[in-house]
Amino acid sequence: MTNKKPLTVGITGGIGSGKTTVAKIFSILGVPIYFADDRAKWLMGNDPILISKIKESFGEESFSESGELNRKYLAEKVFADTEKTKQINALVHPAVGKDFEVWVALQNAPYVLKEAALLFETGSYKQLDQVINVSAPLKLRVSRVLMRDPQRTEKQINDIIDKQLPDEEKNEKADFVIKNTENKLLIPQVLKIHQALKTKADSGQIDI
């Protein structure tokens, strides 16, 4: 092991692409993973500076009397309003970025993964050394989400997809693409990238 700063690698993919499943395979290989979306939710309810900014921007009703984040209220305020979505993102994403930096400094590994749904959309990919995009056909993604979250409608899923960059654009921006289709094995793709990233971390060269 080395004490030098780990290579920072983003892993992203649209809803239903299977990025969390892919991240878990990397985890089995011993790669530390920062789940940015989960951490964002935690910070919104626990980071005093972020809490203060949310209250200032969206009102005291953003939190209950006991101090818990009022997710229903915020979702209603933000989801249908593009400007308010940008506003909440402008508060949350910098807080996640700082939290990630602190987390990275505590890791002792050749590289670490930052798993996030909107790496390209928010521009946070620019702070990372490499990015992996998990790609899958649209119909397959929709069917996966319908199976996973039966309370969602196909329209709701397509609305979410419409707010995310198309796979083609993500694939062009990414350093690596994992194809999570029904006829392509995941593990060999992950192992190949894992080896390439370890090589990159050790020597500064990508070998893939």
CATH topology of the largest domain: Rossmann fold
How does the major sheet shape up? 5 strands, parallel
| Global outline | globular
Query: What's the level 1 CATH class of the largest domain?
Result: Alpha Beta
Order of helices and strands: EHEHHHHEHEHHHEH
CATH-level-2 architecture of the largest domain: 3-Layer(aba) Sandwich
Per CATH, the superfamily of the largest domain is P-loop containing nucleotide triphosphate hydrolases
- SS-based class: alpha/beta
Strand content: 5-15%
Tally of strands = 5
Into how many domains do the coordinates divide?
2
Helix content: 40-55%
**Alpha-carbon Rg, integer:** 18 Å
Low-confidence stretches: none
Strand arrangement, largest sheet?
2-3-1-4-5
Tally of helical runs: 10
Distance between the termini: 22 Å
Oligomeric nature of the chains: single chain
- Mean pLDDT score, rounded? 91
Task: Summarize the structure in words.
The chain has a five-stranded parallel beta sheet with strand order 2-3-1-4-5, sandwiched between helices. It is of the alpha/beta class and 208 residues long. It is 54% helix and 12% strand. The mean pLDDT is 91.
